[in-house]
Structures are given as C-alpha cells and as structure tokens.
Amino acid sequence: VSGIEFGGCCYGECANNFEVDYEKNIIKFGLSSIKGIRVNDIETINNSYAEDGRELIRFICNKKMNKKTIEVLSRLGFFKKIIHKNYCFVENLIFKLKESKPQDFDYDYDEYFKYANRFVDYSAGEKSKAEKEYLGFYFNEHPFSIFYEKLFQKRQHSTYVRPKDLTQLNKGIVSMIGLVSEIKMLKGKKSGKEYY
To answer: Which of 47, 105, 95, 50 is CA-nearest to residue 73?
Structure first.
C-alpha cells in the first residue's frame, strides 16, 4: 500500500496478526506468523505494557511464558528496543531471572546486568538463520547481500549482467555468481545410488 511502512518485530509495535495501524500509518507485524511460539504467549505479550526492561522481564516471569517463546523472540531481536543489550545476553538474562525468587528479582536483575558486556552477541549469519527458521524468510537483511557488497568492493569486472544477457557476449571470461537455496538427496532409477 502506497505510503504505509512495515513495522518491525519489536515489543510494543506488534499485533497478534498483521494489521494496518492507520494512526501511525504502518502495517503492524503479526506475531502469529512466527513459528515456535504459543498462541497464549502472543496474546499475553501483546496485551502487556512495560516502561522498561526490568518491568517487562518481571511480567514475563510472573506469566510463566514458555521457554521456547522466549528463545525465539530473543533471537529475532523482539526485545531490542526496551532492553538495550545484545540478543544473546537478553535471552540468558530472562532465563536466569525466571529462576529467581520474587523477593530476589531486583537484586538479581542488577547483578546479572553487570556481566552484560561479557556476552558475545549472535553473529549476523546466526541472526539471519533465526529469521529464516522462525519466520520463513529474511526480514532484515538477506545473507547474500554480504557477498554482494564484497563483490562490488573487490570487483575485477566492469559490469554485472543477468544470465539471459550473456548471449550478447561473443568472447571473454565470464564469472557466474549464484546462491544455493536447497540441496536435495536423489536416487538413480537404474543404479539406485544416492546423489545430491
């Protein structure tokens, strides 16, 4: 739709299903499209309101949200705008605090935060893999774009053309660039041998 932007998969910006928010002029991301999270958890998180990360994690712990739901949302960066730390730390923080006693929550929260910088975040490749696994598509950046940029930084050829345009070339060296999207195991009809 012209003039309407696509909202991100972030806390406070999503709906249960994809829908248009006419006030903000965006299409809200529908959490029901994510694989591996419970319907009850989707409704719970979308009906919540938290002003900061501490309040949100306390809410998640009190509601006893499913471990898989937390893992999936963390790896998709769902909490990044309310908990300003890397994805890996946030995931571990929530799991640790789920084990805390209610009276120890605030103390444990502050203690765990002291170690935030010790956590190495998931790589760009791991984040892309999570998007493909849980969303079925690459939401932020296709992994091939990394190679695309490298090719243009170190290109040896003057132009890049589509395969169908190669008929116009009579001679010269041609480098082909492609992306393997799927590998299938097949069997020969006569030999019965397996091959890729």
So the answer is: 95
Contact in structure between 92 and 119 (CB atoms under 8 Å)? yes
Give CA separation, 12 vs 27, 29, 42, 126, 148, in Å. Answer: 13, 10, 12, 24, 34
136: left (phi over 0), alpha (psi -120 to 50) or beta: left
Q: How far apart are CA 184 and CA 115, in angstroms?
A: 44
Q: Provide the Cα torsion 126, 114, 53, 91; round to 10°.
A: 30
Q: List, for residues 139-190, the tens digit of each pLDDT value.
A: 777 767 666 666 666 555 556 666 666 666 666 676 666 667 677 878 777 7
Going by C-alpha positions, the residue among 117, 118, 94 that lies closest to residue 105 is: 94
Instruction: Give the pLDDT confidence of 74-110 residue by residue, as tens digits.
Output: 999 999 999 999 999 999 999 999 999 999 999 999 9
Match 């849980």 to its residue by tokens.
134
74 closest CA partner among 105, 95, 54: 95
Contact 77, 139 (CB under 8 A): no
- Sign for the CA dihedral angle at 158, 164, 170, 173 comes to positive
